[in-house]
Amino acid sequence: MGLRDLFKRQLRTVVEWKEQDGQLLFHLMETTTDEIKNASKLIVAPGQGCVVVYDGKVSDVLTEPDVYSMETSNHPFITSLLNLAQRSESEHKMRFYFFRTAEVVNVLWGTASPVKYIEPDYKLPVTLGACGNFSIKIADAGRMFTTLLGTISNYSVADAQELVSSRIVAPLSSFLAEKAYPYREVDSHLMDLSNELKERTATELEQLGLELTDFRVNSVTFDEDTMERIGRIANMTAEQRAAAEVDLDYVSMQKLEALRDAARNEGGMAGAGLQLGAGVQLAKDIFKTQATEDSTERLRKLKKLLDEQLITVEEYEKKKNEIISQL
């Protein structure tokens, strides 16, 4: 150590966070020496606070803008002379961790992993992700320093974003399991989701010295596999309802669907004549249990099949003529 450096370490220090980074919540201020001399000054500006660590312990948490005078056991020259055996190095170290007191708003979040629950209408497991935004502020800097930061020099908004996102999945899964919202109704309950997740997440963050001032779920998104399965079930349900309209069972509906597929595929049947013949036979099967019904009702149902595009025009005309011939 040169004489010049030794002399500089004897001077009182003025410590302040001049260029505050808006993306930092906590920042360890670098000083020329951590052997802060007695009566050195600490400047805390508006929107800032400072955790003062002395001799390895939190000695003070300053939250009001002011100029503070530091009391230490380090005195110019005297302390250095008394510690010649330690290369004039004092064991009394002081460090300054500045923090942001202003609220950080509109921080985006998203679920870190998929959330699963059983959809009540379709009775199948579904997977979704959620995203939104939140606002946060440091409520207890001392607690945050001791429980979350430790020896970390900087803690950023991005770190808080990762922290909140990691805390969302468990309460979201629990809440959806309790409420079991149907797939079609999830979007109408985003406000309920927001309030519940804020309450549950805020409790965890409070233990870390953070206050969750606002929390919102903006949207939920189901994965492609879930959407595909729900789409298949919805199509089957629609076909069953259409079948019920004309007193068909689901098996008959499937036969008609197979006929339509075959008609669209030139290689699916030997020719148009075979297609027509199969359609007529299927129509006979459908109506064989309805022989005693009123002819007008049978014609109405046959027209319904045509309107639903469940049979072709040729099949409709042939079966219509057959019913009329029985009058």
Automatic annotation (TrEMBL):
The keyword Ribosomal protein does not apply. It comes from the Bacteria. It holds the Pfam family Band_7_1. The keyword Transmembrane does not apply. Signal peptide: none annotated. InterPro entries: Band_7/SPFH_dom_sf, SPFH_YdjI. Residues 30-236 form the SPFH domain. Keywords: Coiled coil. Residues 299-326 form a coiled coil. This is SPFH domain-containing protein.
